[in-house]
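TICKET: design request
STATUS: open
ATTACHED STRUCTURE:
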């Protein structure tokens, strides 16, 4: 399915993952120009791409980027029990496989590639970089919109975590994890909260046992491996986020081995910056993101031009 509106072409497609499951994918592409870079979206827990990331896709496509998204297994329009993540590694594999195929298309091989993750999507993006580093070693830049780390007042007690972990082997799909209403905590704009509650593709029940365990373990693992991040990145985080901890985003900024890194904390803003904030705040956030992206594209193009010139010079020396 394809639609065109406001200078952007939107397409949807279903693909099969390595486990034979049908996954929903979508893209937003500028109509009047060739995309100057590719942006791959990694959505948050219980969310999906076609509705909740529509504004992100349109904004970035209108800025000249090719934007691609997919719904994880158990999320959105993809197959699987809604809200159930049996293996976080499998989610990373699905994203890595699909986005790698797009990157390797003939028309995309020389384009820069950017991973953009929000909330749980940040925890999907970082292992993706480790899984296929050859895709990102020359042209990859990562934007993390809120790194996953559950805030203390949203996290169950250690005793509860211990009990729930043991139960994962017995009743992994049960909705037993006690948490606050994430919709009310994450999305500041009441109109967005209403839209999410009316969106059948957003999971709104309590976290399932195995899903909660997977999110908890991956967040702990990432916190221990922050220094492994070497690519340029931008982190943006709401100062009043009560769902994921801003201090862990700051920790990534401080511990990452990247030379080129930026961290923006927005006072008064909540968890969901790209969708849940008021329009005027989203304008501020996207203005910062697009400015950062354009700066990296400019730097990358200069680097690629130097590499191409060097290669041409070497060919000239050989031929002479």
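STATUS: resolved
RESOLUTION: sequence designed for all positions
ATTACHED SEQUENCE:
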């Amino acid at each position: 399915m394809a639609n065109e509106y406001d200078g952007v072409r939107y397409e949807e497609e279903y693909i099969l993952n390595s486990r034979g499951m049908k996954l929903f994918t979508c893209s937003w592409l500028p109509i009047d120009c060739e995309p100057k870079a590719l942006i791959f979206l990694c959505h948050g827990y219980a969310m999906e791409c076609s509705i909740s990331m529509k504004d992100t896709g349109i904004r970035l496509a209108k800025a000249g980027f090719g934007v691609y998204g997919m719904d994880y297994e158990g999320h959105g329009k993809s197959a699987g029990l809604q809200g159930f993540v049996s293996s976080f590694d499998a989610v990373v594999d699905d994203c890595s496989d699909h986005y790698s195929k797009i990157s390797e298309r003939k028309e995309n091989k020389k384009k820069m590639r950017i991973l953009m993750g929000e909330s749980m999507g940040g925890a999907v993006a970082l292992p993706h970089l480790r899984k296929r580093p050859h895709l990102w070693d020359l042209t990859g830049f990562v934007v993390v919109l809120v790194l996953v780390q559950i805030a203390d007042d949203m996290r169950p007690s250690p005793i509860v975590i211990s009990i729930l972990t043991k139960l994962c082997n017995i009743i992994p799909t049960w909705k037993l994890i006690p948490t606050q209403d994430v919709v009310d905590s994450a999305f500041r704009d009441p109109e967005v909260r209403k839209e999410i509650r009316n969106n059948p593709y957003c999971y709104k029940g309590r976290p399932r046992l195995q899903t909660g365990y997977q999110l908890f373990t991956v967040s702990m693992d990432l916190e221990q491996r922050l220094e492994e991040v070497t690519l340029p990145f931008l982190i943006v985080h709401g100062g009043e986020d009560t769902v994921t901890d801003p201090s862990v985003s700051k920790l990534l900024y401080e511990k990452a081995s990247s030379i080129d890194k930026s961290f923006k904390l927005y006072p008064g803003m909540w968890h969901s910056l790209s969708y849940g904030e008021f329009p005027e705040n989203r304008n501020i956030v996207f203005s910062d993101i697009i400015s950062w992206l354009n700066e990296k594209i400019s730097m990358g193009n200069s680097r690629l031009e130097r590499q191409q010139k060097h290669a041409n010079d070497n060919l000239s020396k050989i031929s002479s």
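CLOSING REMARK: The chain has one domain: 3-319. Residues 279-319 form the longest helix (41 residues).
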